[in-house]
Design brief:
single chain, 11-stranded mixed sheet, 14 helices, disordered N terminus, alpha/beta
């Protein structure tokens, strides 16, 4: 009885608050990574929110990092209202005072009534950020172009003799250094303890040296599937959702190799001084509700950040594909996987990217 009254009261309060937001709303600028990922957000978040509130959403793409957020905040001219960021960037931007803080108690409970603070997977709520998905960087190949023995390990990615051809890598230190150490024989669980030493960093760069002459560098998430499709690379690292989308949505003959993948979170943040802060916060709450997160998982193979969303994850939105095994969090895909250490990258990103850029210029 009390729970029913509480939920009813909460629903009424939410409706009043939502009406208020809709009545005073301006255009909302939402920034994300583009391609299949943004499409999944448009279908699961944007369209239902527009239908519910009448708010006009302007979607913009970027390639990650906090440089643009920092520039806007420091100039006192914040044009982005809410941004999808990686975890290490969320931590760093919060520490630098570039983001609004978020009261987790204000987030909606799960569909089963579980408070948000208990419903979100451990390690997905932060002072200035709320996670929406678990994603990962894997590598993939085109099955139609590799016959006989196929690559199955991270070591295979670095083996140019066994698997000749160009390699696609994201242009930056993060993930590439982890991949290099795993390929060099470091167990996934020991990657960051090794990378925390000067010798470990040297070891990672030495391994990258072995394929440097064959690397095609990519920056935007849409590039790796295109590189594979065009035959410009034999193997490429990529965001798992982009490869899945190419397979499920475009019938591409791509295969994901899960060994050594580095999994991470994407989170919503609101830049400090956002002009539409209240509407941005309202959108954040709506998009991270149980149903919306589960709905996004029907468009792309990224795991929802809420526990209550998992049972609602079913088939791909327009094909008979069970989405559970496509998720980075599926037990079969976690055999030799690395969770991105956000503290390590928050502390070392500048130094390692500087070294990476110097290495790249050699």
């Amino acid at each position: 009885m009390k729970l029913t009254k509480l939920l009813a009261s909460t629903a009424v309060g939410a409706a009043i608050a939502l009406g208020s937001v809709a009545a005073n709303a301006k255009d909302l600028t939402i920034v994300s990574w583009g391609g299949a990922y943004t499409k999944s957000q448009v279908e699961a978040y944007h369209k239902p929110y527009i239908a519910k509130t009448g708010v006009n959403i302007k979607s913009e793409d970027y390639n990650g990092g906090i440089a643009e957020i920092k520039a806007q905040v420091e100039a006192g001219n914040v044009t982005w209202d809410i941004v999808d960021v990686e975890l290490s960037d969320a931590i760093r931007a919060c520490d630098e005072g570039l983001l609004e803080t978020i009261d987790h108690s204000s987030l909606p409970a799960g569909t089963d009534g579980t408070p948000a603070t208990e419903d979100f997977i451990e390690g997905t709520l932060y002072d200035c950020a709320v996670a929406n998905i678990v994603w990962t960087t894997i590598y993939a190949y085109d099955k139609s172009k590799i016959s006989g023995t196929v690559p199955t390990t991270m070591a295979d990615f670095f083996d140019l003799a066994k698997f000749p051809g160009k390699r696609g890598l994201r242009k930056g230190a993060k993930v590439n250094l982890e991949f290099a150490l795993i390929a060099d024989g470091v167990p996934a669980k020991d990657v960051y303890s090794v990378l925390a030493t000067p010798e470990g960093v040297d070891r990672a760069f030495a391994k990258l040296d072995t394929i440097k002459s064959e690397v095609v560098w990519w920056e935007a998430g849409a590039q790796p599937p295109q590189l594979l499709a065009d035959g410009e690379v034999a193997l490429t690292t990529a965001y798992n959702g982009r490869i899945f989308n190419a397979v499920a949505g475009e019938d591409k003959p791509f295969e994901i190799v899960w060994d050594g993948h580095v999994w991470d979170l994407d989170l919503w943040v609101i830049p400090k001084g956002a002009k539409n802060k209240d509407t941005a916060l309202d959108f954040l709450k709506f998009s991270t509700e149980t149903e919306q997160l589960a709905k996004q998982a029907s468009y792309i193979s990224y795991g929802p950040a809420r526990k209550s969303s998992a049972p609602l994850v079913g088939k791909y939105h327009n094909k008979d594909i069970d989405m559970g095994p496509q998720m980075p969090t599926d037990p079969a895909n976690l055999t030799n996987a690395v969770q991105n250490n956000f503290e390590f990258w928050a502390d070392n990103a500048d130094q390692l990217n500087e070294r990476f850029n110097a290495w790249l210029a050699k």
